[in-house]
Amino acid sequence: AEAAAEQLQLYRRDPEGWRGCRSTGEVAVSWRPSSEFAGNLYKGEGILPASPQSVWECIKPVAGGLRTKWDQNVKDFEVIEVISDTVSICRTTTPSACMRIISPREFVDVVVMKQYEDGTMQSAATNVEHPLCPPQPNFVRGFNYPCGCFCIPVPG
Fold first, then answer.
1. Which H, E and C letters describe 86-129, residue by residue?
2. Most exposed of 38, 42, 132, 143 (fewest Cβ within 10 Å)?
3. What's the CATH number where 111 sits?
């Protein structure tokens, strides 16, 4: 989990190579080639008219959290094992897509939540196998490289 958090911090600090691919009035999405796997990294950025704590409540990875209510790509989120007050093993499921052409997915990750001195909040996750969560029938087991979210306070 700590390695995933550090990898995300490296992405955040390195502005090189990001190319814009989509933008609305609220969100800008960029991509760049990954140095870890044959594919691309993606990041979405936006400024929300809310306190960092309110935004964090919407995105933080916790069982019973708000993410399953607003994110159509997250069907369920459950904690498999609590490692510490900031680290846990979690299972996320996604619904089928494209008229069920794409099967539902499940992801099992080690997740860490951090808060930094400047008020930035971070969740970081990466794939893990866990004996309490073997692959489930009717789901395709997905694999996450280091991924996560930052909630960064903006003055004003």
1. CEEEEEEEECCECCCCECCEEEEEEEEEEECCCCCEEEEEEECC
2. 38
3. 3.30.530.20
